[in-house]
Structures are given as structure tokens and as C-alpha cells.
Amino acid sequence: MDFDTQIMVIGGADGPTAIFLAGRFESLFCILALLIMVIFYGIYFAKKITQKRKGIQTTQLGRGKDKLVRRIEFIMSVATLFIVPVELISILLGWNHMPSPVRITGVVTGFVGDAVFLAAVLTMRDSWRAGIPETDRTEFVSHGIYRYSRNPAFLGFDLMYIGILLMYFNGVLLFFTIWVIVMLHLQILQEEKYLETVFGEEYRVYRECTGRYFGRKG
User: Fold this and answer.
1) 66 DSSP 8-state letter
2) Taking CA 124 as the corner, what is the angle to CA 197 and CA 213, rounded to the nearest 5 degrees?
3) Nearest-10 Cα torsion for 56, 62, 78, 165
4) How far apart are the C-alpha atoms of 79 and 181, rounded to whole Å?
5) Start-end of H helices in 54-66
6) pLDDT class for 2, splitting at 50, 70, 90?
């Protein structure tokens, strides 16, 4: 008996009423999960389109780099592409093995991910890129949300993915979520090497004061 059904039983609801209310709860989770995804990818593509109109190439994945970086960026791209249909199928078919309290935590986590990603994109302004730019030099940003996270955009991705997973937990989605988070982490490691090479001591000082995902040091 799941959490929603327990509530109905305690409240004295009969069988048909319990089924009806459980269905309403499931519809609400479905709407919220889709909303989390729409907001997140809406931010992503709106920023990409805005930069394109300014003549800025946002996507810098797999462009003229060494083999390891190209491989990581390619696999990361595949992972972030494939997880979307898996999330949508899980949501639309209601594949879930978690009780409502966990799913509610997922809702909060997903919307926090949206907010963190939006803050990262707005703070980075026209310096935001997807992938490591080979020749396109950008401004070093360490203010705003970047005071508390060296990689807030990646943190936003992770929180969004984890939020959807908690709302619609199943084995297939778990596999893809772990895969994409691991690939994003490997991408972070490559980007941090790039930033240290380009910005030198300025970045090293920043790295010593700011957590990779979240937090201030010293």
C-alpha cells in the first residue's frame, strides 16, 4: 500500500474514492515533472537562440580537441540526449516505485535544479558555452551564484535529473541518470583543466575558495 492509499484509508475513503484521489495525485506528479523539464530545456534553448542571434556559437562540443576530450564530450552528449525520452516515457507511463514523500522531495529537487541552472545562465551572460571552447575565449566569471559553486550549470542539470528520478523511480531511468551524472562529472574535470590553463592563478585562487558543486572554502 503506497502513501497516497494509506492517506485515503486513514481518512475513511472508500475504494472508488481512493482510486480517484490516487489518480489525481498521479496526474499532479505528471504535470509537475513535465513542467520541470519544460522550464529547464526552455532556459537552455532560449539562451542558445539568444546567443545565436548575437553571432555566438553556444555549442562547442567536439570541436578540434584532443581525443580524450572529444570522446568525453561525445558520450556526454549521447547520455544527455537519450535520458530525455527515458524520462518522458517514465512520466507518461507512470513508471514509479517510490512513495509520495520521496516523490515530493523529487519535485522540490527538480525545481531547485531549474532555479540553479537559470541563475548560472543569467550570471554567465554571453560567456556561457556548452563544451570547452577551443578558440572562443570568454570572460572569467566568479560572482553571483559562481561564488558558491564552480559549476552551477552542471549542478542544475544534476538536480533536475535527480528530481525526475525521485518522482518516477525505475531501473531504466536510474541507469541513465547515473550514466549522465558520471559523464557530466567527467566533463567538469576536463573544463576545470581548461580553465586553469586559460586563466592561471586567477582560477587557482578561485578554486581554492569555491566548491566544485557547492560551498565556500575558508
Assistant:
1) -
2) 70
3) -60
4) 9
5) none
6) very low
pLDDT of residue 11: 44
Predicted pLDDT of residue 151: 93
Residues 28-80 pLDDT 10s: 999 999 999 999 999 999 888 887 777 766 565 655 567 888 888 889 999 99
Q: Say how far apart CA 107 and CA 88 lie, in whole Å.
A: 15
Query: What is the distance between the terminal CA atoms of the chain, rounded to a whole angstrom?
Result: 48
What is d(CA 22, CA 25) in angstroms, rounded to the nearest whole number? Answer: 5
Q: Collect all residues with Cβ–Cβ distance below 8 Å to 156 and sequence separation of at least 6.
A: 40, 113, 114, 115, 116, 117, 118, 120
CB 175 within 8 A of CB 161: no
| Fold type of domain 30-209 | Four Helix Bundle (Hemerythrin (Met), subunit A) (1.20.120)
- For 130, phi and psi rounded to 5 degrees? -105, 105
pTM: 0.84
Domain ranges of the chain: 30-209
Look at the alpha carbons of 163, 91, 175, 181 in this order and tell me if their dihedral is positive or negative.
negative
pLDDT digits (tens, 9 = 90+) for 179-197: 999 999 999 998 888 888 8
Sign of the alpha-carbon torsion through 185, 103, 90, 96 = positive
